[in-house]
Design brief:
599 residues, 26 strands, binds 2-deoxy-2-amino glucitol-6-phosphate
Length: 599
């Protein structure tokens, strides 16, 4: 949540600040701002709404040799210009941007500023006021920054500007993502590499608890004890061109269309000839575990539910799937030899990081594998092992290609562990995933007809997806996708559960879409569809060609275990067309953000 940028150098940083914020807008987009030193004074420009509003407010001739910027997803205080970042200290000497949540901000206000009025309602303002307070006591800016940070509880990524020292940016982080980008005669700060990739491909990681003194020609990282840390830069596996919309109107449709490409990429990365190529330690840890705990949020959680099937059916290992936000605080009794599999497209999700901390407090020897799309993301650095999704950058808030890639990588992993355990599976996973890839392509080719169906179906305020077995999990994901981008109230239901309550909601024309990709459950789910149709529902069945009846939407036949990767594509297109048909901003749905970095 929230994105921050910083620039210091001999050139003009304004273009970078605006470009960087545009790339980070997916993290939060209710308000934004930049600040920098111009003619020895600090200039702050803030606005409610999107970065394009900020661009309009920014004079073309504005020059900042040092500057900071922020795009906000409100946590403390309403969405207005006053609460938007950057925030300033009382004298305007210090200006700060912050991503994260300061849990003890009220306590700090009461302790250090009793009786003082703060300008904003944010937790951030207390940090910048503390820095000024400590500087007024005679501390240098670095000392004041360090002292203020030592008082904070919670998460933060901070970038501080001091009007009296235009040659330095002060940077620190704890539990919120932040990177330094290395330039020539300049340096950058950004919440992620995407924000800076147009300008540099050399980055420095910052660890929690470190502070970084950034100047035009130097970057000094100091650990908690004040020792200088030497760290090699890294180059992530992304290119500037990848973050372009290309010929598409929206990132969501571009990413839906990239799913066949993502599947091919996964096949090429995880197969070496006919053999699966994956870190032996990952395979061995899963082989030796007595229970798997797959943990994720939102779409990643739904992918985990599908993955559970592979581990239970093929590997015969008990597998639990949990929501990270629940698991951290309502932990089940863990087995004797658990292995944790985290699913996170962004690799930044705070709820998952909380699980990591809590479980490691119980036993620091437990092993964690993360499946993520972002190389060098926070979770990738913090977990013991990483499997990359290789889906290519996903920018739209609604996750599509990451979901299908998560399922594909989980299927390969489970398949390989089953092989190593000597279980003879009756499928050639590489071949079946190629069939899946072709099936996805043929659905994408049929997008026009899918749009016609979407226009006919989603005319009401609410909708339902139903399914049984693994199709129930797909129904949950299909419902999440439709509701998050179109704002149609949608639920995913286990077909058999309808008559235990939810069928009361069915009225004339209520859309109900059934997913059927399992031959054994075909008749059961059709029974449920006929129950709702008799009560006036506007129904559609999405099923495999071999099971299709008149009026169904048929998807190509694929291995039934892998069919969730294919059937979901139709529902992603439904969500896209339902949202764009309503004129909504499909890439940036209201109240959401792509990387959820606060708990
Ligand atoms: C997906 O469409 C959602 N916007 C959201 O549920 C997302 O999947 C969730 O926040 C988890 O994110 P992660 O995969 O980056 O951890």
């Amino acid at each position: 949540m929230c994105g921050i940028v910083g620039y210091i150098g001999n050139g003009n940083g304004v273009e970078f600040l605006i470009d960087g914020l545009n790339s980070l807008e997916y993290r939060g987009y209710d308000s934004c701002g930049i600040a920098g030193i111009s003619d020895e004074d600090v200039r702050v420009i803030k606005t409610v709404g999107r970065i394009k509003n900020l661009e309009e407010l920014t004079p073309e001739d504005l020059v900042f040799n040092v500057g900071i910027g922020h795009t906000r997803w409100a946590t403390h205080g309403g969405v207005n210009v006053v609460n938007s970042h950057p925030h300033q200290s009382a004298s305007s000497r210090f200006t700060l941007v912050h991503n994260g949540v300061i849990e003890n901000f009220q306590e700090l206000k009461d302790r250090f500023f009793k009786g003082h009025n703060f300008v904003s309602e944010t937790d951030t303002e207390v940090i910048v006021q503390l820095i000024e307070l400590f500087a007024q006591d005679g501390l240098t800016t670095k000392e004041a920054f360090l002292k203020a940070i030592s008082k904070l509880q919670g998460s933060y990524a901070l970038c501080l500007l001091d009007k009296e020292d235009a040659d330095t940016l002060y940077v620190a982080k704890n539990k919120s993502p932040l990177l330094i980008g290395l330039g020539s005669e300049c340096n950058y700060v950004g919440s992620d590499a995407l924000a800076m990739i147009k300008y540099t491909n050399k980055f420095l990681e910052i660890n929690d608890g470190e502070i970084v003194i950034v100047k035009a020609n130097s970057v000094d990282i100091e650990d908690k004890e004040g020792n200088l840390v030497s760290r090699n830069p890294f180059t992530p596996n992304i290119k500037y061109g990848e973050i372009d919309k290309g010929v598409y109107d929206h990132y969501m449709i571009k990413e839906i269309n990239e799913q066949a490409f993502a599947m091919r990429n996964i096949i090429s990365k995880y197969f070496d000839g006919k053999n699966v190529s994956m870190d032996e330690e990952i395979i061995n840890n899963i082989k030796d575990a007595d229970r798997l705990y797959i943990i994720g949020c939102g779409t990643s959680y739904n992918a985990g539910l599908v993955g559970k099937n592979y581990f239970e059916k093929w590997v015969r290992i008990p597998t639990e799937v949990h929501l990270a936000s629940e698991f951290a605080y309502n932990m089940p009794i863990l087995s004797k030899k658990p292995m944790f599999i985290f699913l996170s497209q962004s690799g930044e999700t705070a709820d998952l990081r909380a699980v990591l901390t809590k479980v490691r407090e119980i036993n620091s020897d437990y092993k964690f594998l993360v499946l993520t799309n972002v190389d060098a993301s926070t979770l990738s650095r913090e977990c013991d092992y990483t499997l990359l999704l290789h889906a290519g950058v996903e920018i739209a808030v609604a996750s599509t290609k990451a979901y299908t890639s998560q399922i594909a990588v989980l299927s390969i992993l489970a398949y390989e562990v089953a092989n190593r355990l000597g279980y003879k599976l009756k499928l050639d996973i590489e071949k079946e995933l190629s069939v899946v890839t072709n099936a996805i392509e043929s659905i994408l080719d049929d997008a026009k007809n899918i749009k016609v169906l979407a226009d006919k179906l989603f005319t009401e305020r609410n909708a339902f997806y139903i399914g049984r077995g693994v199709d129930y999990y797909s129904a949950c994901e299909a419902a999440l996708k439709l509701k998050e981008v179109s704002y149609i109230q949608t639920e995913g239901f286990a077909g058999g559960e309808l008559k235990h309550g939810t069928i009361a909601l069915i009225e004339e024309d209520t859309p109900v879409v059934a997913l059927i990709t399992n031959t054994k459950l075909d008749l059961n789910t059709r029974g449920n569809i006929s129950e709702v149709a008799s009560r006036g529902a506007n129904t559609l069945v999405i099923t495999l060609e071999k099971l299709a009846r008149e009026g169904d939407y048929a998807i190509p036949n694929v291995n039934e275990e892998l069919a969730p990767i294919v059937s979901i594509v139709v529902t992603q297109l439904f969500a896209y067309y339902a949202a764009t048909g309503r004129g909504l901003d499909v890439d940036k749905p209201r109240n959401l953000a792509k990387a959820v970095t606060v708990e």
